[in-house]
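User: I've been going back and forth on whether these two constructs are worth ordering. Before I decide, could you fold them both?

Assistant: Sure. I'll take them in the order you sent them. The first construct and its C-alpha cells:
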Amino acid sequence: MAMEVHRKLTADSSPRLRNGETGDCIGTFEGHKGAVWSCCLDTNALRAASASADFTAKLWDALTGDELDSFEHKHIVRACAFSVDTHLLLTGGVEKILRIFDLNHPDVPPREVESSPGSIRTVAWLHSDQTILRNLYCGNFSSRNLLVTLFGLVKSYNMPCNVESASLEPKLGNKFVAGVEDMWIHIFDFNTGEQIGCNKGHHSPVHCVRFSPGGESCASGSEDRTIRIWQTGPANLEENGPTGKLKASALP
C-alpha cells in the first residue's frame, strides 16, 4: 500500500501514473485527443482525473487505467481537482468558468460557481471543500490568485509575475506556493501576499505546483521535463531567503 500513498501523475497527451518515491512509470491512461494540461489523483488514489486541450475532463480508474467518464466543455480545460471527500470534481479553463461535477451523479449538469475575469490555470479545494483556490491569467503578463468560497470571493492577490500554478499549504494555511515562468517556485505569506521564500532548481517555466496533504513537502512540474519534490519544513537560509530542500527529482 506504500505505492498507493506515494503515487503521482504526469502527462503530455496521455497521463502517466508514477511511483512518487522512485519516479518509475506504473501505467498510462489512453483516450485524450489533445495535450493534457492537468491531472490529479483522488484522496485514496483509486481514481484519477485529467484536463485536456480536447475540450474534455476525464475520470479514470487509477488501478486499471479504464476511462470511467468524460465531461464535455466548450473550450480548453486547463485544471481539475478532486474534493477531499472524492465526491466532486472541479474544473476550469479558457472558458473562464468554474464547474463542479457530482461524481455520484455524472449525468447531472455541473454546478457553475461564477465567471472569472481571466482564463483559469489552477484550481484546488480548501477548508473542507468549502473554499476554492484558482489562479487566473488576465492578459498582458498579469496574473491573480483568488480564494473563492462557494458563496463569494475570500482573497485576491495581484502577483508580480505571470503565475502558472498555485497551491495553499493545507495544514496551517499560512502560506502558498506559486509556479511561474521565471523557472522558480515562489513562496508567499497567505495574509500579506508578500514573498517569503524561493526554491530554485528548474531550468524551464514551472507549470504545476502542489502541496502534499500534510504540507510537509510540495511537488513542482516543469517544461524541463522534471518533477521535483521540495521539503517545506525547516527552511534553509540562502542568499534569497528561506528555500526548501530538494527531496527528489524525476525524469519522464
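The second construct, handled the same way:
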Amino acid sequence: MLPLRRLFLFCWLLWPRLAAAQAAPPATLLRPAAVFDGEALHLGWVVLVQGDKIAAAGPAAGISVPAGATTLELPGLTLLPGLIEGHSHLLLHPYNETSWDDQVLQEPLALRVARATVSARNTLLAGFTTSRDLGTEGAGYADVGLKQAIDQGIIPGPRLLVATRALVATGSYGPHLAAVENLPQGAQEADGPDALVRAVREQIGHGADVVKVYADYRWGPSGTAQPTFSQEELTLIVQTARSSGRGVVAHAST
C-alpha cells in the first residue's frame, strides 16, 4: 500500500488529466466532399464537432483532432451551416388537408401539439436549426411548451423563437361566422392603449421571444387588405415590447 503522502501526490498529479478527460465532450470529425461556409464552397475541408458545438472547420491538415474522436466519412456530400426559418407556424398544417377555420375551431389542442412535434422534427431534418414561429393561430401558448420540450431534449426540433398568440385589432381577423358570436380567434384581440400594453405584457410574461402584430389584414371591402391598428397603437406596441428587450414583427401587405 502506498504511503499516504505518496498517494496524495499521485492523485494531485493525476487530477488535471482526469478532470480534463471528464470535461471534454465527445468529438466527431466529419469528412464531407465539400463544405459551404455561407460564402464559398471549399473542397477538402472537414468539420470538428465537440458535444453539440462546432469546434472547428477548415482544411483537414489544419484541424487538431482530439484523441479518440470518431470520424464520419461523408463521400459525395456537402455540409453547410444550419438554415434559419424566419416565419413558421408549426401548430398549423396544410390547408388542403384541413381548412384554417377548422384547425382553429375544431381540432383539439392535443392533436395540434402532436402534429407540431412532427413538424418540428421534419423542420430540423430539412436542415433548419433555428425557426421563428410567428403565432399559434388559436393554440394559445402551446408554442412555449413546444420550445421547452425541444430545449429539454424531449423531442427533436430546431431552436425556436416564439411569438405566442400574436395581436390583432378587434374584428379584423378570424374565424368569422355571421350567425355565431364570441368565436375563438386565431390571435389575441386588443385595442387602445391600456388593452394593448396589457396584451403585450401578457404574451411576454407567458414566454414570447418576439411580439407579432397584424398591422393590416383582409378586412376591407370585398376582403381587401387594410390597416388594422392606428399609428399610435403600433408605436405603443413597439415601445412596450422594446421596454422588455424584445422586438416586434408585423404582418403587413399594404
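Notes on the second construct follow. The chain has two domains: 26-63, 83-251. The helical segments are 4-23, 100-105, 109-125, 142-151, 192-205, 231-242.
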